[in-house]
Amino acid sequence: MPLVTTTEMFKKAYEGGYAVGAFNVNNMEIVQGITEACQEQKAPVVLQVSKGARAYANHTYLVKMVEAAVQECPDIPIALHLDHGPDFETCKSCIDGGFTSVMIDCSSKPFDENVEITKKVVEYAHAHGVVVEAELGTLAGVEDDVQVSAEDSSYTHPEEVEEFVTRTGCDSLAIAIGTSHGAYKFTPEQCTRNEQGILVPPPLRFDVLEEVSKRLPGFPIVLHGSSSVPQNFVDIINAHGGKMPDAIGIPEEELRKAASMSVCKINIDSDIRLAITATIREYFDEHPDHFDPRQYLKPARQAVKDMVAHKLVHVLGCNGKA
Asked: DSSP state, 202?
């Protein structure tokens, strides 16, 4: 099966009440861990590449690694997606360079400018058989080159979505309902503490999601900034020399609820980084005499695979949907 667009997988996800996982990739071990989990769980998957990943690993290397995954995992649909494309030129480069899906993120710009640039990307992408994700509303947090303060973030305005989708022709829409980029999604002041003293983030704005869904029936919605920041990884990192106080993510049960509604794609990046870092930090402490990267990257890859498998089954609900 060659690389595919997200059109068919999103249609099935919407009708089936589940979401497809969109996992950010930066190197071989991450690509392998994600796709091996998806192959075993028979799950469709979006492998997404940010501007920062392209700068780090090189566009060609990333595309070839994903093509290798397609060859090694022939039984599952895999889409290659640009995450947070900042401008037309970046999107065009990815469209011309083998991607099957791109995101143009002009959410920080005025509405009409967002429409204008998004429409330009859509016209070029559709002419080349590529689909487009756009964004309305601005998520707080930090991810690669995307940095938005809490003060500058804003929820999506449901009354704008019909006009935006109609004028741009985009294929899916990322909205802001309270998720946030990075591992430090919320300050302690924004949270409450449960009986165990663990910080609990403010709930997602499902009222916004429901209103958007009413205005765009059958249209695939995307959630960015949806890592759960598993506390077992944070604890391992902190126990082995790390300093990650108050790292907080989105509760998995809220993401599962979103996946059962109109959300067809849920983005996960920070959890991958945490799984790798926790595993390697622990390995270095336990094996101070080891120096072969294969020795510590192998368990790190397995940690990514195990974490992704958990997400497929218990959060996204897309296992068995390939």
From this structure: P
Q: Any idea what the CATH number is for the domain that residue 118 is in?
A: 3.20.20.70
Q: Is the pTM of this model over 0.90?
A: yes
Are 57 and 81 within 8 A, CB to CB? no
- Name the nearest CA neighbour of 219 among 308, 136, 119, 114: 136
- Nearest one of 243, 255, 268 to 18, comparing CA atoms: 255
Is 152 domain-assigned? yes
Is 87 domain-assigned? yes
State how far the Cα of 233 lies from the Cα of 254, in Å rounded to an integer. Answer: 20
* Torsional sign, CA 63, 69, 72, 74: negative
Give the model confidence (pLDDT) of 44-85 as tens digits.
999 999 999 999 999 999 999 999 999 999 999 999 999 999
Answer yes or no: is 1 within a domain. no
Active site residue ranges = 83
Query: Containing domain of residue 125, as a range?
Result: 7-316
